[in-house]
Each structure stands twice: as C-alpha cells, then as structure tokens.
Amino acid sequence: MPMATFYIVSESSPQAEPSGFEQYVVFLTQHFAQQGAKVYLQCQDKLHAEHFAELFWQVDAHQFIAHNLVGEGPKYGTHIEIGDQGIKASYHRQLAINLADNQTTFAQNFAEVIDFVPCEENAKQRARERYKLYRQAGYQLQTIEIQYP
Fold first, then answer.
1. Looking at residue 54, what is its pLDDT?
2. What is the pTM of this model?
3. Among 32, 60, 63, 78, which residue is least crowded by beta carbons within 10 Å?
C-alpha cells in the first residue's frame, strides 16, 4: 500500500520561516537519498525547481549529493531529481517530496510521498485538500511534527 506522510510545520519552529523550511527540505531530501532512495522533488514551477537545485549546490562539500533537474544529467544516475508540475519525473523513483501547492496527481507513480502542512491558514487548507486526495487514492496516511536535527 502506498504511504503519504505529512510533516507539520509549527509556528514556533525554524521551518516556519521560508529559509528554515527550504533548509529542512534539503536536509530531508538528502536524508532519504543517503539511505539509498531515489527521490523526486516536486516543485511549484520551473523557477522554484531551479531555486532548489541551487540550494543543493550550496551545502557543505561533505554533505553534497548529486542531483539534477528533470531532463538534465543521466536518466538514472542521481539519487535526487528535481522537477515541477509541468513535467514528468524519470522512472524508478520510489519517493516523492511534494512542494507544489495544489496538484497530487503525479503522486500515483510513487510508493511513498512526503507532503507538508504549513502554518499559514490558506496553505494549511490546501494541505488538507491534498490529504483528502491521498486518502481517496488509497494511500496509508500519517502525520509527523517536524523535528529539526
């Protein structure tokens, strides 16, 4: 059964700030990739995807993990692939991390999906809608309060 995990961002956490959230997404993506997962990072649009690709270049050298935008680099060569709503992820990706606001139809191609419940009320409502869509699609659901290392 596919699994969808929603990470809850509390208002008092460092992840409530945009830069703190971005750092957490990079950390989480690297964490799963280091465990051998082929991760797809679903961004809102191309600019958002390019922004995250740049963030992965800015990590310390000893933490660097190869990554690429969809369509760039080797098809199966990196553990982290970054794309957006307008394009399709490469094959053989087990885990998707969703940063897009409103579309979950891409998720049916993954055994596991990570999503987020932000603090801001409108974004929180969109997360609730995605939660319902995952449930209707047969995903086993869980929620986790973010704990930053």
1. 95
2. 0.90
3. 60
